[in-house]
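fwd from M.: "can u put these together and see what the complex looks like"

so here's what she sent:
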Amino acid sequence: MSRQLRNRLFLLVSSGAVLLCTAILLFLFSVITWNGINALSPSFLLTASRSFGAEGGIFYQILGSLLMVLTAALICLPLALGAAIYKSEYLKNARLQKASAILIYGLNGIPSVIFGIFGLILFVNILNTGISWFVGAIILAIMMLPTVVLATFQAMNSIPEIYRESARALGLNHWQVVTGVLLPQGFAGAITGLLLGLARAIGETAPIMFIATAFSGIEIPHALNEPVTALPTHILALAQQATDPRALQNAWGASFVLIGLVTLFSITGLISRTKFKTVSQR
Amino acid sequence: MVMSASARVGKSYVFMSIIISTAIILLILTFLLINSWQAISEIGWGVFSSEWHPAAGKFGILAMIYGSVAVMIIALTIAIPLGIMTAVFTAEVLPAKYRFYVKSMLELLAGIPSIIYGLIGIVFLSVWIEDFFALQSGRTILAGGILLAIMVLPTVITLSDDALHNVPAKYREAARGLGLYPYEVLKSAVLPHAVNDIAGALLLALGRVLGETMAVMLVIGSIDRIPVPFLNTLLPGQTITSKLGREIAETAFGSLEFSALIFMGLLLLVFVLAFTILAQTFFYQPEQRLYE
């Protein structure tokens, strides 16, 4: 085969792949948007679901999802800040540094269904909490933890050494340097990490379906050990009765709202990533 | 030097935080190991048989392993060539000013929750497969594999694109200066430098495919059987994740069946962790970026 022919063939195959990917992408976006918008209405967003989700709206599912992920963020934040400070400012041994990185990256790679099983064994069975929204929030907080720790760590660790030295020269002790000089930077990183973590956590079904959610008849939980309804598990229940066109329509509506929330969190996260650049990147 | 009280409290707080954060993964592994111990000791190597029939005391997980491996092979056979060829286009051919839009699009696509892919799989993909192959039901191993390919495609494209983009421009310029065609520039100057990062990307994709639950659970048909003939993917099957997702909540805690299910989870976790850690430690610098 001549060189020129081989080059043409390569360009042809490559553009073919691009076209196929673009087609898949367009299909996904149009299906979700078209079906979603058709299912959307003010009453859909603001009323409770009825007859196992086939009628009514998704008001309490939206509230339940937000309640769970925002609580998860509050649980995750102090732990992640502390861990990132220690990793960046106190952990000087290279081997321990590497080991902690592997453990945290490993946590990030754990399949989501395993988190659900862990929650089921530890909380629901051993600690006997029952199906509880708060347990769901704890498990989602664990899932978000690596993202937030690493975002905070990167923001703090990239601060030039001169800042630490100048602060020490002013007579601040190590802890004062951490809280006064490094933490403000790290906090910006933590917010970015939290928003990206929220975008992932709110769409997760497998970690919460055994331990935190009930399907219908639940409104707002009044105690920590009560179940909640959430968007992803609601979509799961509706998808399993997809032969009913009303249930299917509501599933598309709920999916559209869920993607809207995911996009909201991730776009705010991306904005905060570009806005709060660390000192070293300015 | 004497530490002030607040410094001492602060230091123990951050120390506790890192201990908790790094111990969680060990805790998860320990809990899975303890709870699968009953199955390991009572069933032994019998777990690697092909029949799952709790009422008859048979807990063979081979059908689930087959399902997981089968969907993984189908997904990667589609996603790897398609994803890398597309990344070649976005990194080497596409003008740089469009790159931002393509990357944002891919990031958005990668963020779609897996349950929504599952919904699309139920409503469209499995129906198409049903009609195309004239099957009784389109919920098959093939449907699971194709759906996973679509899900993992954005990750493969965006990581391979990064890998190609990180190759310094001087290599391309030198190769082009020798009069090579774009294909030859790519093959002999760019790819050798990017191949390590691409391999890391593929390992991460592998881990994601193996661990994916919701989408697969909805389209695979959930029957614990190894297809006859062996390679017929147009039959319903079961993966480790779909089995766990469907059955773990209904199984009595402490029973042998529960323990056998947890053993499956442990097996899955060990493999996924091996791929993730391999990818992160050998193919990327830990500081670079977090791949999800």
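replying to her w this: Strands of chain B lie at 52-53, 58-59.
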